[in-house]
Amino acid sequence: MKSETLTRADLTESVHQDVGLTRQDCAGLVERTLDLIAEALQRGETVKLSGFGVFQVREKRARMGRNPKTGKPAAIDPRRVISFRASQMMKSRVETAEISTVLNGAAED
User: Fold this and answer.
1) How many other C-beta atoms lie within 10 A of the C-beta of residue 30?
2) Res 20: pLDDT
3) What mean pLDDT do residues 83-99 have?
4) Is the pLDDT assigned to residue 63 strictly greater than 80?
5) Are 56 and 49 contacting, i.e. CB atoms less than 8 angstroms apart?
6) DSSP state of 32
7) Which of 11, 21, 40, 62 is in Cβ range 3.0-4.6 Å of 25 for a Cys bridge?
8) How far apart are CA 48 and CA 31, in angstroms?
């Protein structure tokens, strides 16, 4: 399986082709959408995108860990992290796409 990356520019281009607004307007829409998601997460809110998944901010408590280089114990400060849980629909789409990609790739060899 080859690894490709979807970028903001790709999203902008896709919106431009589907909606027909100018590229500049589409870039603004994409940026504003991403900003709204980021702002909600900064406030500690959950972001649910139906059919896609849920972004949540989780609080991690302080704990003891180990320095992997020296093996010595090291304190890990409390922090906030973002977690993502894909919806069942997204999981199904990815699973189906992966299987068909593997099967189509094997047929071409």
Assistant:
1) 19
2) 86
3) 90
4) yes
5) no
6) H
7) 21
8) 18
Query: CA nearest 37: which of 27, 26, 48, 24?
Result: 48
Q: Which two tokens stand for residue 6?
A: 């979807």
**53: phi > 0 → left, psi -120 to 50 → alpha, else beta; which?**
left
Token readout for 53 is 């998944």
The answer on pLDDT for 109 being more than 60 is no
Q: Which amino acid is at 88?
A: Q
Asked if residue 41 lies in contact with residue 64, where contact means CB atoms within 8 angstroms, the answer is no
Confidence at 105, pLDDT banded by 50, 70, 90: low
Domain 49-109: CATH class, spelled out: few secondary structures
Rounded CA separation 56/2 (Å): 29
pTM comes to 0.75
- Report how far residue 77's alpha carbon sits from residue 99's, in angstroms, rounded to the nearest whole number: 41
Return the higher-pLDDT residue of 38 and 109. Answer: 38
